[in-house]
Amino acid sequence: RTQFPAAAESQKPSKKKAPECPILEKLNWLIHLHYIRKDYEACKAVIKEQLRETQGLCEYAIYVQALILRLEGNIQESLELFQTCAILSPQSVDNLKQVARSLFLLGKHKAAIEVYNEAARLNRKDWEICHNLGVCYMYLKQFHKAQDQLHSALQLNRQDLTYIMLGKIHLLEGDVDKAIEIYKKAVEFSPENTELHTTLGLLYLQLGVYQKAFEHLGNALTYDPTNYKAILAAGSMMQTHGDFDVALTKYRVVACAVPESPPLWNNIGMCFFGKKKYVAAISCLKRANYLAPFDWKILYNLGLVHLTMQQYASAFHFLSAAVNFQPKMGELYMLLAVALTNLEDTENAKKAYAEAARLDKCNPLVNLNYAVLLYNQGEKRAALAQYQEMEKKVTFLRDSSSLEFDSEMVEMAQKLGAALQVAEALVWTKPVKDPKAKHRTTSASKPAGLQQPLGSNQALGQAMSSAASYRKLPAGGGTTQLTKPPSLPLEPEPTEEASPAEASEQIREQW
């Protein structure tokens, strides 16, 4: 027998134990797993255990707990926890960004800027910091600084959201052309982004460039056939051109996606108004008014429909409410004066006409209706002054643009001119054909006035602000290491208006 020495077994290598993780970090993987699965209750239980074992010194556990608190709406508590993380790791840029974001959500924009600047000193090549600084400056109405920061962000990393915020700043400044240039660059960079196409189409629609508007809205619907904002905008364009049945077909699709949309029901109501189905129009407009009781455009339309139905008391109710929300629009005072005239309140009607003439410097119909009222009251001299003012406006409109005037307005002006014995100075020598898409509010006895229903492009303001709330997270690397969830680029609230000057210019169609 061959015998092996006993000492041979002792020469086998012994197995080494795996190194134990430090106690501060041993449950981080479980916290991360529960967080990304959105199992927040289990995550908070593990965080509580981890903080108890580490005596509150586990930075990652505190960080994730702060994220969960912010998701639950406890912004102030999350801010305090993020500040604790910043104390535990003062050189961490991500901790500072989260502190600044919580300050931004609390409305403390100046404090957020200070923290973002401190983070920028630690990392000057972070596009997210530049982007968020631009958003903070925008809320402080420091638009030039905001543009500088956003341009710096685009140089570091081109992102759709940065383009959208830059375009929004130009719209807030009232510079639609620069906003269009920004959105065109954004579409070139991201040609499949439906929000960008929709916003660009709406801007072209605002300028009256219908061909390009159709092109971009069509592109948006090509990539996303269920994009209700693009469908609503396309329907409003068809409604503007009098295709009410086609527009209603589009609106049926939108109603499935957003059944509680005030602009949708407003547009549907004005489609029925164009089809002379006034009871259905009032029903839809009242639903829109229920959903948005402070929207002056809906109140305007309700007043207009009631005027058409010769329900002057109801018209006065809605028009006076619209005047309270939009006190600087002359046409509202003119329609209010029409209702007061038919309610036989002549003195207040004169005051309303005088205010309308003071506010509206380009609509000749205001002066024509005012002149008719003054003539019927026997004040021929004052009526002649208003008639001459109307002639000046008509001459200016003829010289500056090729507008068509409504035949009823021309006929009434001719009759009034003959009655005032100024027939040799009439600005019209023959009636003009009535445009197809016009709607009149003239009663059987008195010329109430020509008004284009405010329903054609009601989707514009809503879609513009919705397009500004497009969300995109910063691109992350494909590493396998456990990392903190990134902070998000700042965005404005979706209820923010896109442009302060779009109230009357976007919606009204000139006649």
What would your notes on this structure say?
By secondary structure, this protein is mainly α. It is 64% helix and 0% strand. The chain contains 25 helices and no strands. The protein has helices at 28-36, 40-54, 59-71, 75-88, 93-105, 109-122, 127-139, 143-156, 160-172, 176-189, 194-207, 210-223, 228-240, 244-257, 262-274, 278-291, 296-308, 312-325, 330-342, 346-359, 364-376, 380-400, 407-419, 459-467, 502-505. The relative contact order is 0.08. Residues 6-10, 423-482 and 494-511 have low confidence and may be disordered. Part of BBSome complex, that contains BBS1, BBS2, BBS4, BBS5, BBS7, BBS8/TTC8, BBS9 and BBIP10. Interacts with PCM1 and DCTN1. Interacts with DC28B. Interacts with ALDOB and C2CD3. Interacts with PKD1. Interacts with CEP290. Interacts with DLEC1. Belongs to the BBS4 family. Residues 433-511 are annotated as: Disordered. Residues 453-468 have a biased composition (Polar residues). It is found in: Cell projection, Cilium membrane; Cell projection, Cilium, Flagellum; Cytoplasm, Cytoskeleton, Microtubule organizing center, Centrosome, Centriolar satellite.
